[in-house]
Each structure stands twice: as C-alpha cells, then as structure tokens.
C-alpha cells in the first residue's frame, strides 16, 4: 500500500495542479491510508474565529460538507491543538462538549495543523470516522506529509498570484501617464490601432483631436511646477469627462494631449470641437491660485481608416494643431 501511495503522490506532484486538484487527490489517498470515512482540509480565519471546510471527501454515511463553517472555538481541531492531542478514538467521551462532533457521530478523529513556511497557521488536515480505529504511525506520517505538500501548494499559488498582480501592475504602469493617470504615448498609439481596426470593420470614421496647451510654460514659471502639474491633471479630468470608455484619451507628453473617437461616416465634428474648446478654457482653481486659462491649440481631422493608418492620422492632426496655433497667435496679435 505504501508503495502505491508514494507512486500516486509522485505522479500528482509531477503534474501541474491547482490547489483544489492536488488536495482532492491527497484526500482520496488519505482515505486509503487511514481507512477513515471522511477526509477534509479546513482553513481557519483566526481574526473572525471561524473554521471553514474547503474540500472534503466522504465515502460513507459520515458527511463533512464542503463550505461548512463553524466557530473556531467550538471545533475538534481547536481542542486537539490546545491539548496537543491530534488523535482520539473516544471523541464522544473526550470532547463530549463539542456539539458538532456529537451531532455527526464522530468516534475517531485524526488531524494535523497546516502551517506555511513563515509559521502562519493556515488550517487543518483531518480524517474522521464513526467507527473506532487504532492509532497508526503510518497514518500520522502521511497526514503530516500531505499537510506539508498542501502548504507548499498554497504558497506556490500565492506566489503565482502575487507575480501576476505585480505583472499586471507593471503593464498598467508602462501604459499610464504617471501624473494624470491617462493613457501615455505608448498606450495611445496602441489604442488608436485598435480603434482604427474597429472603424474599418464598421466603415466609420475616427475623429482625432491633437491638443497643445498654449502658454503652459508661463503657468509653470509664474506659479511653480506643482501648480503646473495640478493644471495638467485638471485638464486630463476635463478631457475624460467629454468621452466614454470606448474613446482614446491620453497625454502624449509635456503639454500635449490627444482624444480620438469613432463616429459614423456622416458624423459632424464641429459640435464636439466646440465643446472641447469650451471645456479646456476658463476658470481653474489650483490650490491657492485662481487661474483663467484662455484656451489651447487644437488640431482635428476626420480620418478615414480605409485611406490612412493611425500614425498618418496623428501626424495630420499634429499639422492641423500647428495651423490652429498660428491662427490663434495672429488673432492675439491683431487684438
């Protein structure tokens, strides 16, 4: 029997398994070794003082239900740990005040705590039966071995989850403008490629607005870089308020922003551009500074994705922005 168990354990460890898959195999093997009716793994939430049955294997009338929760202080596991007694075949006598065990008719109980490498108490691995069984050193060793294997699997899954979270955060960071929280240049270009692809399929157009914040240097020089940063953040929020989740809104760098959205081939851009200009110009309350901003230079194009790609569209919008800047400068000089 021991050779069979070792072979099955080796096979289980060599395969890629989730925690649930590994535990279920180990519970089945634990049943064979201990000859108990029920084997199960629990997790203990010490802060809430609750024990949860995560996975269970029941082969007879004794049923330990998965998802079952019980106050930690009322459990056999808590009593076993407090008394350093991890095997008992007289449960109804030894722990007769444990009502859950009495209700289930548990006679024999075998358990071992599951501790992680740093000493954190995770829960317990248990085997129980309504029948009376004798203590077995072999069963104890297997129980402890399986608890160690489960702890290693838990830590591996936790590490993988942390690595995935870190990777997701790193990817998000590499695509996000740190100051404004908008898409950065890299993200804008990639999102535009997607937007153009969708527009080609829909035979629609892509409206692109290239925005340059005129006189931004003067704000920095007069009020300081902190106020300048607050101004950029506020502009980013105003641009976002004009768009929805399907649109592209980003900061290309410095004082340059870009908005892009898909619109019907017959759509008009004048209304949107006018709203955009009104949104950017006007009053800004930046800390203790009350600023009136006259507005930005905005270059807009209605790109046909059948005729140009995203890179060409950005260049065209950039050219249109410089034309708008010259027009605004001429108007300011004339006034």
UniProtKB/TrEMBL annotation:
SUPFAM superfamilies according to UniProt: GAF domain-like, Nucleotide cyclase
Gene3D superfamilies: 3.30.450.40, 3.30.70.270
All copies of domain GGDEF, residue ranges: 204-335
Superkingdom, taxonomy of origin: Bacteria
Listed InterPro entries: Biofilm_reg_signaling, GAF, GAF-like_dom_sf, GGDEF_dom, Nucleotide_cyclase, Rev_trsase/Diguanyl_cyclase
Pfam families found in the cross-reference section: GAF_2, GGDEF
PANTHER family (alphabetical): BIOFILM ARCHITECTURE MAINTENANCE PROTEIN MBAA, DIGUANYLATE CYCLASE DGCP
Name of the protein this chain belongs to: Diguanylate cyclase with GAF sensor
Lineage summary: Bacteria, Pseudomonadati, Pseudomonadota, Gammaproteobacteria, Enterobacterales
């Amino acid at each position: 029997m021991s050779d069979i168990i070792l072979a099955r354990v080796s096979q289980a460890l060599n395969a890629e398994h989730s925690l649930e898959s590994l535990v279920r195999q180990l519970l089945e093997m634990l049943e064979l070794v201990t000859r108990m009716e029920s084997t199960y793994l629990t997790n203990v939430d010490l802060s809430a003082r609750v024990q949860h049955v995560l996975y269970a294997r029941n082969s007879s009338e004794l049923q330990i239900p998965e998802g079952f929760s019980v106050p930690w202080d009322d459990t056999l596991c808590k009593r076993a740990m407090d008394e350093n007694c991890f095997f008992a075949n007289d449960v109804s006598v030894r722990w007769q005040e444990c009502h859950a065990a009495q209700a289930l008719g548990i006679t024999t109980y075998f358990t071992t705590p599951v501790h992680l490498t740093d000493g954190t108490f995770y829960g317990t691995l248990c085997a129980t039966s309504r029948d009376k069984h004798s203590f077995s050193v072999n069963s104890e060793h297997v129980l402890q071995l399986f608890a160690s294997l489960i702890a290693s699997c838990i830590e591996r899954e936790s590490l993988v989850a942390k690595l995935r979270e870190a990777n997701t955060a790193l990817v998000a960071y590499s695509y996000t403008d740190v100051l404004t929280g908008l898409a950065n240049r890299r993200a804008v270009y990639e999102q535009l490629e997607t937007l153009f692809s969708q527009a080609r399929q829909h035979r629609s157009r892509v409206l692109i607005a290239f925005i340059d914040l005129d006189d931004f240097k003067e704000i920095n020089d007069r009020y300081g870089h902190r106020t300048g940063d607050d101004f950029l953040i506020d502009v980013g929020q105003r641009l976002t308020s004009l768009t929805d989740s399907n649109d592209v809104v980003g900061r290309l760098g410095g004082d340059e922003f870009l908005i892009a959205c898909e619109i019907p081939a017959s759509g008009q851009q004048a209304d949107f551009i006018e709203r955009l200009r009104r949104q950017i110009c006007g009053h800004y309350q930046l800390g203790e500074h009350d600023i009136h901003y006259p507005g930005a230079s905005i270059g807009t194009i209605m790109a046909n994705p059948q005729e140009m790609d995203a890179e060409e569209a950005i260049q065209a919008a950039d050219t249109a922005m410089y034309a708008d800047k010259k027009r605004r400068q001429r108007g300011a000089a004339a006034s």
